[in-house]
Specification:
This protein has 257 residues and is α+β, with helices and mostly antiparallel strands. The protein has two domains: 3-131, no CATH class; 150-256, OB fold (Dihydrolipoamide Acetyltransferase, E2P), CATH 2.40.50. The protein has helices at residues 3-7, 24-34, 83-89, 96-100, 111-148, 204-207, and strands at 43-46, 51-62, 66-72, 78-81, 156-170, 175-187, 193-201, 216-225, 246-256. The protein is elongated and about 80 Å long. The N and C termini lie far apart (68 Å).
Length: 257
Amino acid sequence: MSIEKLKVTQYIPPKGDYEIFQDENHFKEKLKEWGLPVAKKEFWYKDRNFQCHVTIKGYETYGNNNNTLIIEFPNGEISCIHPAYLKEMQQASFGKESMILAEDKPKIMDESEVKITKSSAKVQKERRAETSQTEKTSYSKEKEQSQKIDLPSEKVHFTATIKQFALTYNPFSEENDEVVVLKNVQIEQENPLELGLAWCSHSKTLKKFELAKGDQLEFDGKVVAKKLAKGKDVPDEYIVEAPVLYKINNPSKIVKK
């Protein structure tokens, strides 16, 4: 089996640490649970162009105690695979026609392969959902925090520092607009109110000050809870890593220190 063929194999690495077997008995118990031969330590992996032996290094657990296997290829690469899919690969008839005719026509999966492929796709979808849920939870906490701040409705005095410039998508012009992202934003009043990050349009008024990263400002303005939307096809220098949840409207009486 050619190493070159292994290079074109699509590996699906585990998303983090995975569980390993406690001992030989634990390994055999899990093989039995997955419907794999308990007497084997190496198993066939079959692709449309080749086949090789792989070993099972461990497994991931997701959902209602379901597992995804972590297999190791002869070149040392590891990848995730659904146990039922690996079980199907142990059959002599699995992919036989596809491997013989790989140069002439694409592989046509039978019903059982389609079901297993869909099952593997479901695993990947669940992983993406977990990641998405983590991001949503993080944003929900930030949103909840912003809602706890009682923003003033009238015009107030601010101090802030220029963090960077960014781009936000304008659905009306269907183009990106340049904005100014501020950090250490604080409303100066009897009890100063810290907002953290905020943004405002890079208006003609602001452009007159030839602002640069690190500039410290004082100004008057109104603040509203409005998250900075991402731009489209934004260069790296205009990407804002952290969510910006507040917008400052109509800054005036600007003083650059």
